[in-house]
Amino acid sequence: MEYIGEHLLPGQIGHLLVVLSFVATLLATVAYFAATQRRATSEYEGWRNIGRFSFLLHGLATFGVIGVLFFILVSKYYEYQYAWANVSDDLPFQYTFSAFWKEQQGSFLLWSFWHIFLGVVLMLRSGKWEAPVLAVVSLAEAFIASMILGLYFGDARLGASPFDLLRDTMDAPIFKQADYLSQITGNGLNPLLQNYWMTIHPPTLFLGFASTIVPFAFAIAGLWLKEHKEWLKPALSWSLFSGAILGLGILMGGAWAYEALSFGGYWAWDPVENTSLVPWITLVAGIHTNLIARATGHSIKSTYGFYLVTFILILYSTYLTRSGILGDTSAHAFTEMGLGLQLVLFIGTFSLLALGVFLAAQRTVPVIQEEESARSREFWMFIGALVLLFSAVLITGATSLPVWNKIVHVFNPDYVGAALKDPVEHHNRYQLWIAVFMGILTGIAQFMRYNERNWEGWARKFTAHVGIAAGGAVLLTMLNAMWLEMRAWQLFALLFTAMFTLVANADYLVTVARGNLKMAGSAVSHFGF
């Protein structure tokens, strides 16, 4: 049957660009890998140039896919399932962006967009690190591009295309009519998503997600090239950027939840929100061990581990969000689209890559045999990193209960499954005391020094600063407790340590940093924390 009014050309162009994007990033992966392996030969530049060309072609093709899909949404072409499901004639233009990344395909494209943007910056600025780092980024892009291919091999499907026609996705009598388009309109966008936060929160959050691959890629490159100290400087700059953006994106999501949702609170109980938070926690831990490694030479292996696990946790979070496994426990998960196996392969490939490269090179990582002094800054920074890791493990364990239940159910169909009766109470029971410890630590560690060798001469000043912070914290705690009408002693402990952090870091800014922006960065970050 020849249908009246269908616009098939945009979808055909979109399909072509998706395939071109996938093939180009595969070529970029191979070329950059070959360039890295031949970095000391005359063949290096040739392979690197092929990698650059292929990556840029992948980028142009992906931008083309984004442009075509956005054109379909703006034009209200309801013959496409993506437009029919997410826009309507009366949807204000600005919320077309929310409609674009509402579905899995659009959010994958947003993720890919930021990888490409970051890849071009790396191409221009990373020098000798370009080939190994972009080999890793290109490989990740190949997996993401495969998620929107929509190619069928018999009954098996590779990816879910955003250009599927509505009549190909559902069986309804209306499609027996040639003019069916004159009788349908779009479903529109959920009113909760018609909010200004949803036009700025997802791109910010996905820039945070995407940027975590850069410290991961530098860690792989350091292990691959066995340059275990040189990679720390560029990795630190990128991890600071990533931590700031990812944290900002999470805060924006919390603000949207507080403003838009009926219960008027943050989604601290929601598994999807927690899986976004966990990689930020391990990234912050990695930033601190990176600082230790650059200052003292200690904790290089730990820095590798934190940066590697952060991106793996981003992929795990992606699986939990998109596989449908959290459908019964989260209010914020995507619907299942048959991409579960591809997501598992994505996680498995990068986990094996990280583990394999680490095991192959770990014996060559320099290790300082002398233990850190318990009176040094690096010792307590490392303890703080371990506490953050403990926090991440606790949150991930509770969040992963649906995954555990599904695995056990395969072997025991009668297994009922474990579940948290009160997620808020569960998380607060443990995370509150972790926060108390971190509050104290971020106050006192500022006044400690790297490689402490003269504690006796410094102890009096250190004690004075801690005493000032404690006294100020007691006063502020009393005032705030009266204002908030607090009763629970656990909250008094939390409030005291928060006030202790504020006073101690304010003291540090005034007496130690004294206008030095580089030194003030840590104190400002601790204020925010």
Q: How much helicity do the residues have? A: 55-70%
Q: How is the largest sheet built, in terms of strand order?
A: 1-2
- Overall structural class, as computed from helix and strand content, comes to mainly alpha
| Rg over C-alpha atoms, rounded to the nearest angstrom | 26 Å
Overall shape: it is globular
The pLDDT mean sits at 90
How large a portion of the residues is in β-strands, by DSSP E?
under 5%
Describe the structure.
- This protein has 529 residues and is mostly helical.
- Helix content is 69%, strand content 1%.
- It has helices at 9-37, 44-74, 81-86, 96-100, 104-125, 130-146, 166-169, 197-211, 213-225, 232-260, 271-296, 300-322, 340-361, 377-399, 401-411, 423-444, 455-484, 489-513, 517-528, and strands at residues 151-153, 156-158.
- It has a two-stranded antiparallel sheet with strand order 1-2.
- A hairpin with a 2-residue loop joins strand 1 and strand 2.
- It is globular, with a radius of gyration of 26 Å.
Please name the defining characteristics of this protein:
529 residues; mainly alpha; two-stranded antiparallel sheet; 2 strands; 1% strand; globular
Write the layout of secondary structure elements.
Layout: H1 9-37, H2 44-74, H3 81-86, H4 96-100, H5 104-125, H6 130-146, E1 151-153, E2 156-158, H7 166-169, H8 197-211, H9 213-225, H10 232-260, H11 271-296, H12 300-322, H13 340-361, H14 377-399, H15 401-411, H16 423-444, H17 455-484, H18 489-513, H19 517-528
